[in-house]
Amino acid sequence: MEDILINWTPQETRVAVVENGAVQELHIERTLERGLVGNVYLGKVARVLPGMQSAFIDIGLERAAFLHVADLHLNGVNPRGHHGESGQATPIERLVYEGQALTVQVIKDPIGTKGARLSTQISIAGRLLVHLPQDNHIGISQKIGSPEARDALRARMQTLVSAGVQDGNTGGFILRTNAEEASDEELGADIAYLRKTWASIREKSLRQPPGSLLFQDLSLVERVLRDLASERTNSIRIDAKLQYDVVRQFGETYMPAATAKLELYRGERPIFDLNNIDAEIARALARRVDLKSGGYLIIDQTEAMTTIDVNTGGFVGARNFDDTIFKTNLEAAGAIARQLRLRNLGGIIIVDFIDMTREEHKTAVLQEFRKQLNRDRTKVTVGGFTQLGLVELTRKRTRESLARMLCEPCPTCEARGQVKTARSICYEIMREILRESRQFNPKEFRVVAAANVVEMLLDEESQHLAGLSDFIGKPISLTAEPTNQTEHYDIVLM
């Protein structure tokens, strides 16, 4: 069983999913940086790129959003590809044109320097169903049981969808996992709500100018009831009376089962102190993750991929070295799966488990890893061990990771993760003085640098500095600037 804790302030909402006292997931939404996934806009085609089979769409954001031909759904054509009479894919330049207005939905938030990714296939999520207005397909969640149960649900849905048809456009629906035990009345109510929402979007698209927001997905607090609460949820505790009333009213209308687990937290201690969640957030930003056995993980996140290295550390508890490695890798498999959820790491992920010689150990570790990853709400695809003993996986990335949301690049090292030594800076300064002495003829060169650089120039590098001064025939003076970092210096021509 799991508990969901919600810490709300006017500027930020934080949600923690806690299982057996350990934080499994963290979700953070800031009022000024609210995610865009699920939002529907009336966009305007700003530029078509035939070479990339893509288009840039202006949806009123700072950066133009990105639409690939595979996500283009026009006139009932499946977004997996547009094909003409020849059977070949129709190029994007024949499907859209600059200045065209398109109703689009954000499927990936802007990440780093990349703009949002869009699709013209709109999907609207409800409590039990996901509505696909431009599609007539009825789908069933893969997590819903037997083929017989799936067929029965599909038959019920076809009857309900046909009963409420308007203007000959039924639209498609996907049944979510929690729809398996739903009654016809509940499914019918969800269908009506979703169709009404889509009708509102269409009506706005006809009278709003391009760049307008037509539909905004639920807030994080409301999405807790829709997406995070399940049969495994023991309680949902929120520490703000105002939001508690809002969510309860929303939940009683659409999600009464989840709303029954909602509690207002009135304790004196901050709600996140109950399970040391703030400390867990701090650990989730660290590069090193310690395992209970004494082993540890090293997690490095880059623009292209995330790498995770497993080490035995101080673990010597097994009878022989092979067993030590095997037990460390088994523990690491569960810890890595949890860290992926906790840090919301996405994209390409490479895991370097400790090398194992026995095939049965490799098989057992891979099985445990896949088992732990199956608990993830986000789609994860895992490969086997490569020739180099690495495990490759991809995790769907729809929003910024925890580190990218809470942190920014270090201004001292400029996100390199390291800085030059004081000696390197000394030599750099001397090369710069030599270069400038050939272009200018000042009376004196004055170096303004960090205290540790000036100290090294006066001590260990004093002989080299004196030799440079004699060579260029100009005096060199030094000034220590306490606010300067090691790499920051100025050379003033006097």
TrEMBL record:
PROSITE patterns: S1. InterPro entries: NA-bd_OB-fold (IPR012340), RNA-bd_AU-1/RNase_E/G (IPR019307), RNase_E/G (IPR004659), RNase_E_G_thioredoxin-like (IPR048583), S1_domain (IPR003029). It comes from the Bacteria. It is found in: Cytoplasm. Keywords: Cytoplasm, Endonuclease, Hydrolase, Magnesium, Metal-binding, Nuclease, RNA-binding, rRNA processing, rRNA-binding, tRNA processing, tRNA-binding. GO terms for molecular function: endonuclease activity; hydrolase activity; metal ion binding; RNA nuclease activity; rRNA binding; tRNA binding. GO terms for cellular component: cytoplasm. This is Ribonuclease G. It comes from Roseateles chitinivorans.
